[in-house]
From TrEMBL:
It is found in: Cell membrane. This is UDP-N-acetylglucosamine--N-acetylmuramyl-(pentapeptide) pyrophosphoryl-undecaprenol N-acetylglucosamine transferase. Keywords: Cell cycle, Cell division, Cell membrane, Cell shape, Cell wall biogenesis/degradation, Glycosyltransferase, Membrane, Peptidoglycan synthesis, Transferase. Pathway: Cell wall biogenesis; peptidoglycan biosynthesis.
Length: 365
């Protein structure tokens, strides 16, 4: 009889990509395994998971709204309904094991799996665990983590240092520099910076780029500027008459491998999944953590790299006055670039998806 695995979580690409990577690894290791995803209605996973070829069930659950008390009034009812639906899903699917990757749906699904005696595994992506995962960790059998020192959040005997699952296609950049530069219409032999705000974009990074456009032209530095679909139209209208030929403005990146391959320096937010990809890519990185995340976990992620001399850190608060200076100084400093890429490459863990998948299968057996 085929083994059955439920994978729950989502909300952002940082949760969804690891979840899909684990599912893909499970199928590589055991092709007859049956996989069902559980997500939150209205969130990104409800589109991305079916697009990856998997079935998903949605729970009507949301996070706490810190700006509006009124919008939180329905939360207890949504939580109760989500728990009841999670119980039905687990029983109907006859799950052998439940995996939580973080995001709204992880909480009710894993809570109910624990109550029903279904073994659970948590994949904690960040260097600072959220409240839900800390609670779920008490009953989880295995907790797969990407950073050292996580025993301050979880029972040490349950921890397994695996790294974060990454999109392998995004980090396979060997020999693709020429192809990558050509795909963006950029020239070989010129220093190139990739600025990426993730799938949603980052206003701070976009503001910095707007202010520094003329300087990139002056210094003859090429830039791939991924601004996010939400910001693209307004930015294009703002810069249409003054966008230098050496700066390419894009809403999103279809081929991350080309963007990573083309770059000499990368400027990015500090989401856990992004950092795992950056370690695998092994390029010099400037991290500008988003302050708009729970428990300020992106700053903690970035500082974990900073402590190992594997990245340059610029705070969101100081970015508008210092980021462009940092970018131009780093891309011109070959010694510093070599040091950063040497140290960040040491942190790469490229087979996390298969290591985690093997742990899931062990729980079943």
């Amino acid at each position: 009889m085929a083994h059955k695995v439920i994978i729950s979580g989502g909300g952002t690409g940082g949760h969804i990509f690891p979840a899909i990577a684990i599912a893909n690894a499970l199928l590589r290791l055991q092709p007859d395994v049956e996989i069902l995803f559980v997500g939150a209605n209205g969130r990104m996973e409800m589109e991305r998971v079916p697009a990856a070829g998997y079935e998903i069930v949605g729970l009507d659950i949301q996070g706490i709204n810190r700006k509006s008390i009124v919008k939180n009034l329905g939360l207890p009812f949504k939580m109760l309904n989500s728990l009841l639906k999670a119980r039905r899903v687990i029983r109907t699917f006859k799950a052998d094991v439940a995996v939580g990757v973080g995001g709204y749906a992880s909480g009710p699904l894993l809570m109910m799996a624990n109550a029903l005696g279904v073994p659970t595994l948590i994949q904690e992506q960040n260097s600072y665990a959220g409240i839900t995962n800390k609670r779920l960790g008490r009953k989880a059998r295995v907790i797969c983590v990407a950073y050292e020192g996580m025993e301050k959040f979880f029972p040490a005997e349950k921890l397994l240092l695996t790294g974060n699952p990454i999109r392998r296609s995004s980090v396979e950049i060997e020999g693709r520099t020429r192809e990558g530069l050509a795909s963006f219409g950029l020239r070989e032999g010129k220093k190139t910076i990739l600025v990426t705000g993730g799938s949603l974009g980052a206003k701070t990074l976009n503001d910095c780029m707007l202010a520094g456009l003329d300087r990139f032209a002056e210094q003859d530095v090429q830039v791939i500027w991924q601004c996010g679909s939400h910001y693209h139209e307004a930015l294009q209208n703002t810069v249409q008459d003054r966008l230098p030929a050496n700066v390419v403005l894009l809403p999103f990146l279809q081929r991350m491998d080309y963007a990573y391959a083309a770059a000499d320096v990368i400027v990015s937010r500090a989401g856990a999944g992004t950092i795992s990809e950056l370690c695998a890519v092994g390029k010099p990185v400037i991290l500008v953590p988003s302050p708009n995340v729970a428990e300020d976990h992106q700053t903690k992620n970035a500082k974990a790299l900073l402590d190992k001399h594997a990245a340059v850190f610029v705070s969101d608060l100081s970015a508008r006055s210092t980021l462009v200076d940092n970018m131009l100084a780093l891309v011109a400093d070959e010694g510093k670039c070599f040091e950063l890429q040497t140290e960040i490459s040491k942190l790469a863990m490229v087979d996390a998806d298969e290591v985690i998948a093997k742990e899931v299968l062990k729980l079943i057996r």
